[in-house]
UniProtKB/TrEMBL annotation:
Pfam families in the cross-refs: PCMD
Native species: Porphyromonas cangingivalis
Domain of life of the native organism: Bacteria
Protein name: Putative carbohydrate metabolism domain-containing protein
InterPro entries: PCMD, Put_CMD_sf
Domain annotation Putative carbohydrate metabolism: ranges: 80-319
Source taxonomy: Bacteria, Pseudomonadati, Bacteroidota, Bacteroidia, Bacteroidales
Entry keyword set: Signal
Amino acid sequence: MTLNKNGVSSAMVCKLGALCLLTGLVFSACNGTDPIKEKRNSIAEALKREQEREQLRISEHYDFKTWNAPTDDKGKAKPYMIPVAKGDTTDMELARFWKSASNAGYVFLAGSKPANTYPVYFESNSESDHKSLKLETKAGTRIFGMGSYVVPGSVYNGKLNMLKLIAAPLEATLFGSEYILMPFRLSASVRYKAGAEMINGIDKKKLDSKDKGSIVAVFYEVDQTLIKDGNDADTYLTGLNLHTDPRVIAKAVCEIEDTKGEDWVRIESSFTVMNKEAWETLDFKTKKYRLALVLSSSYMGDKFFGAVGSTLLVDKLEIKGEPLSK
């Protein structure tokens, strides 16, 4: 028989342990508690709360069924097309929901080429005439230190500063439009095929990586102190700071690799909170917020990296958000 330092045998320890366990179970039973049942009930309650929250969430759907040529402020049609959003009330490009710096800048390379040769166009099903968004990375050029040898196909919501489009293209994209919900989830139906060779669009050097498509949603606070003489341009995030600015509160990112065949693939990403303090103190009554949606055929297009021929097709895009509960 083996005794511990208190003179108690190991067999006695086992018996005491079993007695304690039995006593605990009897005590739980006497008090009407069942640990397993309590755990099961806790899970059921959590699922019920999540279902209730899901019913409160509001979906915003974006399809790409309708297209036309945007116009300038004098009513002249541009040589390319962009999707028409359900809230668009005019063809004038600067007032439309969707913008495409890719198409606007490609005008200088395209010359008299038709709209279907631009980085942003539509894919049409010949049987049903159903249209989806088609983003394709095109070959570009550099002149006098400006431009890029790759032009990713990209659309976003927000504004477009035409004056900066050539000399400072990343500053020309002003991302986002007003949003009054707590963003929860981004989802889309996509198809993707990467181009053969990833290059640096500034020096044409080959990169040891493969291209991907991307769909990004960024929720950020509008700093109203940056409005100058009625000009709110500085309150927008741009291609320079979309992912790094401290005003970013939450974001959802989908990087899309090659898909197989002709079937649509559903992708989704929940929003990740980047600024917990700002998230917990959201105030839609006294503050303003924007949600930026950016879709691109080359996920590192903001660094001028991409593969010519990379193609992203998007059939449906959905953002789910929920009302502020407090």
